[in-house]
UniProtKB/TrEMBL annotation:
Gene3D superfamilies (UniProt xref): Cytochrome c oxidase, subunit III, four-helix bundle, Cytochrome c oxidase-like, subunit I domain
Predominant cellular place of this UniProt entry's protein: membrane
GO CC annotations on file: plasma membrane
Annotated protein name in UniProt: cytochrome-c oxidase
Protein topology in the membrane: Multi-pass membrane protein
Domain of life: Bacteria
Keyword annotations from UniProtKB, A to Z: Cell membrane, Copper, Electron transport, Heme, Iron, Membrane, Metal-binding, Respiratory chain, Translocase, Transmembrane, Transmembrane helix, Transport
Localization annotation: Cell membrane
Organism of origin: Aliirhizobium cellulosilyticum
Enzyme Commission (EC) number: 7.1.1.9
UniProt entry tagged with the keyword Iron: yes
Membrane-crossing segments per the record: 40-62, 82-111, 123-145, 169-190, 210-233, 253-278, 290-311, 323-349, 361-384, 396-420, 432-454, 474-498, 584-603, 609-629, 659-685, 701-722, 734-756, 768-793, 813-835
Pathway: Energy metabolism; oxidative phosphorylation
Claim: Amino-acid biosynthesis is one of the keywords in the record: no
């Protein structure tokens, strides 16, 4: 039994004053340099919600245009831009970012942590998201918005005359936004795995944390294929490399594969966090722990796994082999099983408890009802013969919105009503909430249910008008009326959020009598936890008496901030044993500068402003170097610090114990997924063509095998530098210098094959694919050189030593992935197929 700390009122007041000083948010313009996850998460959510309202207005504009036949309210071009931006914003700028915002806002308190490990990374992600969103959304005001659909199918979207600059804005703007999503995924995964309160073993995590861990992992495998596809797409538009041009060996179906490998898991990346909110709300208003904790975790994992085997059901009409149709149809049916398990667990929990009817439960139940209808139509379209009939009709539009709005939007609103007191200390109005719910519920069903019938009567998607004799006018008029009723409900909800509210007579940190840890958080304070508690149950506020009082009294870990630095506790992955007192980054301009400069790179590339691209790239590089140099791997003033309860922990750790090592590993998993997508493209072209090379000369075997060998030597030298660093700096420095020189030679050899053999990337898809994979690997080699040089400078300045070796261990981990990438790249290019000069 751990003996808790006990402080006098004077000591507690002094501790809290020091904590407030350390975690204080600056005022004035410096407010925007804040990197608190709580504040970043809040602004993330507000920004995502604002983008949603913008997309909703575009949706209403579309419905107004379709209300009657032969309407000329807006032009076909504006309609195309509106529906493209509507889908793009809802999927990329609202559905995923809103959950990332909720996650980085809630997780510190929910996990019992003072902060997540990389608050500056969260800030970088937010500024990237904001700038990318403004860039993409603002294009419609200059008649330059993308107009080829939120899925950007070639060859329509690669046609420069039709798509114009809008396609480039979509590709580069969303590539920039995807950087923010992956940054948030890294923060979420490392935070959940390494920053849980002591005692919160992995089988005791809140359901919300489990779901977000699964979703963040899915992001690492779903988003990179889209990034790889964006690279191929933009290379065709910018430099005429024919990845999707059939006349030169390309194939538009590769884009569909890469897009839907992202696009269908995306649906579950959206759905699972919504279920996570319900997994927090249902037990609270049933006043009992959730039934079948292990079952719902396994069902969530199963849903995430199966979601990657469904993407081809979006391509049933593209002429696939029968075996492919059968496999993906079966997988599409099978995913209903774990989804159903999760819904039945909620029903069982409500039956086992005493349900308190409330606005959050109203929205949650309504959302589940709508989602169930969407799931039933999903089972229908998973059947190939039916899909052939309903494909690209308004039946699919109805199905999509029933799944997304029922499975995501209604639970989000439920979550906002539930967590609003957590953010502000005040509840939203029950009366306003019920009005908003019924307007939204009735409006949604009136708006979207008739689309099933218009779709079955043949109305295709993405038409801006239609003739009267087709008989679609009544369904469209009803849908338009329903859409405006739904919008009235959304506006009621928004007004309820922003209208003035009376201050509560009594301050209640837990108005719903919830059992999870986040409800101990004081919304008036900027830290996650007053002191980091010891957890012994899944619902500690119900099962651990006096826990909240003990946390507020500072009787647990990190009750003070005597070091004057922001500190949080790092624990072991499985058992949550304390292993480090981590010092996280404080107020800083660097993440904002890095994000805005990187945004400048993408924007300048869109307009082919090459000099500005180089300037912005240079600023980004400098900002990142400053960020790393002033980051968490600095040598502390003492090896160990007192974290309370009579325990001392190290401030500096390296290797798998450190959060930096985990962040590198997770980032490289995502990077490896993008690389695998490019290799998939290489073999896709090879299998769909009788003669992939079309008689073109390949890079030969000599240069690829030489590059492979040199990269392996550079990898071994990096490992050697890490090992020699433990014995002294001299050998480490020699190995690093040698590694830098060998890596440079490897990069040159990697490009020499296609260059020496004059492979023209504009002539055919084979040389273009060889070039793109070689360039990918060489760019990563150049990053490897920068990392080796960074460690060399660290060694020369005393930052990297035998005891403080986090940087070189993380760089070595990068090189494990780098070596694998190089071996695969040059083995594939040199050996498959055997074509040489």
């Amino acid at each position: 039994m751990v003996e808790l700390g006990n402080f006098s009122p004077e000591e507690r007041a002094a501790q809290e004053e020091r904590l407030r000083k350390v975690w204080k948010t600056p005022g004035g313009w410096r407010y925007w340099t804040s990197v608190n996850n709580s504040e970043i998460g809040l602004w993330y959510g507000i920004t995502a919600f604002a983008f949603m309202l913008f997309a909703g207005l575009l949706g209403l504009l579309m419905r107004a245009q379709l209300a009657v036949p032969n309407n000329d309210l807006i032009s076909a071009e504006l309609f195309n831009q509106a529906f493209t931006l509507h889908g793009t914003v809802m999927m990329f700028l609202f559905a995923v970012p809103i959950f990332e915002a909720i996650a980085i806002f809630l997780l510190p308190s929910m996990l019992g942590a003072r902060e997540l490990p990389f608050p500056r990374l969260s800030a970088f992600g937010y500024w990237s998201f904001l700038l990318g969103g403004i860039f993409v959304c603002g294009s419609i005001f200059f008649n330059a918005a993308p107009n080829a659909g939120w899925f950007m199918y070639p060859p329509l979207a690669t046609d420069k005359e039709y798509a114009g600059i809008g396609a480039d804005i979509w590709l580069l703007g969303l590539s920039f936004i995807e950087v923010a999503s992956i940054a948030a995924a890294v923060e979420i995964i490392v935070g959940i795995m390494k920053c849980r309160a002591p005692g919160m073993r992995i089988n005791m995590m809140p359901m919300f944390a489990w779901y977000l861990l699964i979703v963040a992992g899915m992001i690492l495998f779903a988003f990179p294929p889209l990034i790889a596809g964006d690279i191929l797409f933009e290379m065709e538009r910018m430099f005429d490399w024919p990845f999707f041009d059939v006349s030169r060996g390309g194939d538009p179906l590769l884009w569909q594969h890469l897009f839907w490998i992202f696009g269908h898991p995306e649906v579950y990346i959206i759905f699972l966090p919504a279920i996570a909110l319900m997994a927090m709300i249902v037990p609270t208003f049933s006043q009992r722990p959730i039934v079948g904790y292990s079952w719902i975790v396994l069902a969530a994992v199963g849903t995430g796994f199966l979601s990657f085997g469904l993407w081809v059901h979006h391509m049933f009409t593209t002429g696939l082999p029968q075996i492919s149709l059968a496999f993906f149809s079966a997988a599409s049916e099978a995913v209903a099983i774990p989804t159903g398990v999760q819904i039945f667990v909620f029903i069982a929990t409500m039956l086992a408890g005493r349900v308190i009817f409330s606005v959050p439960m109203l929205f949650g139940a309504g959302g589940l009802a709508i989602f169930t209808i969407g799931g039933l139509t999903g089972v229908m379209v998973a059947l190939v013969p039916f899909d052939w009939q309903a494909h690209d009709t308004y039946f699919i539009v109805a199905h999509l919105h029933y799944v997304i709005i029922g499975g995501m939007f209604f639970p989000i609103v439920a979550g906002i009503y539930y967590y609003f007191p957590f953010v502000t200390g005040k509840k939203l109005s029950d009366a306003w909430g019920k009005i908003a719910f019924w307007l939204m519920f009735v409006g949604f069903n009136v708006g979207f249910f008739p689309m099933h019938f218009s779709g079955l009567r043949g109305m295709p998607r993405r038409v801006f008008t239609y003739p009267e004799e087709f008989g679609w006018d009544l369904f469209n008029m009803i849908s338009t009326i329903g859409a405006f009723i739904f919008a009235a409900g959304v506006m009621t909800f928004v007004i309820d959020i922003f209208r003035p509210k009376a201050k509560p007579v009594e301050r209640n940190l837990n108005p719903w009598n919830a059992g999870t840890l986040e409800w101990t958080n004081d919304p008036d304070e900027s830290w996650g936890m007053r002191s980091v508690p010891i957890i012994a149950s899944r619902y500690p506020l119900w099962e651990q008496p006096n826990l909240q009082a003990d946390i507020e009294a500072g009787r647990y870990y990190l009750p003070d901030a005597k070091s004057g630095k922001r500190e949080t506790l790092v624990t072991s992955v499985l058992d949550a044993e304390p292993i480090q007192c981590l010092r996280v980054g404080g107020v800083s301009l660097v993440p904002m500068v890095a994000a805005l400069a990187l945004g400048g790179v993408f924007i300048a590339l869109t307009f082919h402003w090459w000099i500005l691209t180089l300037i912005c790239a240079s600023i980004t590089f400098i900002a990142i170097m400053v960020w790393l140099w002033t980051g968490t791997a600095q040598i502390p003033e003492a090896d160990e610090v007192d974290v309370g309860l009579g325990q001392k922990l190290p401030v500096y750790v390296s290797g798998p114990a450190s959060v930096g090592w985990w962040a590198m590993f997770i980032t490289m998993v995502g990077d490896g997924t993008a690389f695998a997508s490019l290799v998939f493209g290489y073999f896709f072209y090879w299998t769909v063509h009788d003669d992939f090379t079309a008689g073109a000369v390949g890079p030969g075997m000599l240069w690829p095998m030489l590059a492979l060998a040199l990269f392996v030597v550079a990898w071994l030298l990096t490992i050697t530098a890490r090992e020699l660093n433990e014995k002294g700096p001299a050998g480490c420095r020699i190995a690093l210098v040698s590694g830098i020189l060998v890596t440079i030679a490897a990069c040159l050899a990697g490009l020499a094959g296609p260059y020496v053999h004059a492979m023209d990337p504009t002539s055919n898809v084979y040389p273009a694919t060889v070039w793109i994979i070689a360039i990918w690997t060489v760019v990563h080699g150049a990053v490897g050189v920068i990392m080796q040089a960074y460690c060399l400078v660290g060694s020369l300045t005393g930052r990297v030593t035998a005891s403080y070796d986090q940087d070189i261990r993380n760089v070595t981990l990068y090189w494990h992935f780098m070596a694998f990438t190089a071996v695969v790249t040059f083995a594939v290019l040199g050996l498959f197929p055997m074509v040489s000069a």
